């Protein structure tokens, strides 16, 4: 079943039952208002008994009636609207299908939040919607004003603040909803003045589902309502910002990134594996650097589980990069039977590794172990297991963490200089890359304290990491080619393999020279304090 996506940009208003819709033609830029069109909409909302979706401002419904009948999944924006800004949410639509079977294209996008829990109907809404279309010059459809009279019914089995089953389970209200179609967001400010003058007021709820559920969806564990949410840029800007605030502020968006990319992997979307892997690495690096702030057991478990997830993500990602790189190198060779034979064997080997790794990853993403990891990450974010009553100043702790990571990088660089040529030297450079990556992530966390030098350190470490990443890719490609073994009875195939191997050796030499240059350029920077 196919699904389509759109960005919903709207503002909601509470309004009394007898309020009159104002003259929308008075809005600047509105040339004509279409005739009111009324439709009867019936929607059933699905969630878990604990409202795992609603607590994250996610709604999943099946609606009949109107022009957009079907399954609708609404996902929250990356950041909450500020002040009077309109609400933006990403909508994913799928055809009506069966009443009690959520389309897989939508279900895959919420598995990271369901974590094995079953979906069930929680609310039924009946809406009498009267829509007025607003048109600008040249007949452009700017926006729609929906005048909704809503009856909401809490479905059986939902006991909460509304009372036991059967009590206080039906609500009625009226609201206006102004949603952009092809218009500009500048329309909202004058429209709000007009609507408020007509008796409306900004809605006290983000969605009809939220109003129907009342307080039932608030303060759900894992919904981001714990202590971690108190971390703000203003707190981090001060010289006395606590060290724990740095960690929370740094890992929180990466936890959200990890959750968001879960769907990309399940749906096999491009870059999903890479993005989740990067988020997991950043969290793990910072937990390691600041581990002494917290009780050791929970941090150790988190790091171990993130390492497990990282290995699962690494197998398909490495194979994907390897296949793409060798495909490009094969394109550089002269066309012919030898190149074709080499391409076939490379694609079979690297493609097979990618497929097998992706299958293992998707299986893991359905496991209880993975869901427990997601629970633990959110619990750490919302209720950090600090080991002391007074958390030390962030600037001091962050500076020390960066200096320690830089020292670690310098030691690995010296080890690479003295390593024996060949495999030992290659492994040593790989260790340099890992330590450069850790320094980058720790310096990024320190940069939250407005540390300009920390930002420069992060960029310098990133340059070294990126260069040595290309070196490592060439090593992996060389090893794969060596393992394939050319067909010596076919000179053309052997020649193609030889050309590919030579290309990897050239890349290794070139990237190592670039690394030495980048290392020399940033040597002084990485020796001094950052904050």
**Number of E-state strands:** 10
Mean pLDDT over all positions:
89
Give the neighbour order of strands across the main sheet.
1-6-5-4-3-7-8-9
Spatial separation of the terminal alpha carbons: 53 Å
Radius of gyration: 28 Å
Structural class: alpha+beta
CATH class division of the largest domain: Mainly Alpha
**Biggest beta sheet attributes:** 8 strands, antiparallel, barrel
What is the ordering of alpha helices and beta strands? EEEEEEHHEEEHEHHHHHHHHHHH
- The fourth-level CATH homologous superfamily of the largest domain is CHAD domain
Q: Strand percentage, roughly?
A: 15-25%
CATH topology of the largest domain: CHAD domain
* Structural domain count: 2
Structure description:
The protein has two domains: 4-213, Beta Barrel (Hypothetical Protein Pfu-838710-001); 227-527, Alpha solenoid (CHAD domain), CATH 1.40.20. It contains 14 helices and ten strands. It is an alpha+beta fold. The longest helix has 37 residues, at 296-332. It has helices at 104-107, 111-114, 188-197, 208-213, 233-237, 243-266, 272-289, 296-332, 337-364, 368-382, 394-418, 423-447, 452-484, 491-522; strands spanning 4-14, 32-33, 37-47, 59-64, 70-75, 87-94, 120-135, 141-154, 170-180, 201-202. The chain is globular. The protein has an eight-stranded antiparallel beta barrel.
Layout of secondary structure:
Layout: E1 4-14, E2 32-33, E3 37-47, E4 59-64, E5 70-75, E6 87-94, H1 104-107, H2 111-114, E7 120-135, E8 141-154, E9 170-180, H3 188-197, E10 201-202, H4 208-213, H5 233-237, H6 243-266, H7 272-289, H8 296-332, H9 337-364, H10 368-382, H11 394-418, H12 423-447, H13 452-484, H14 491-522
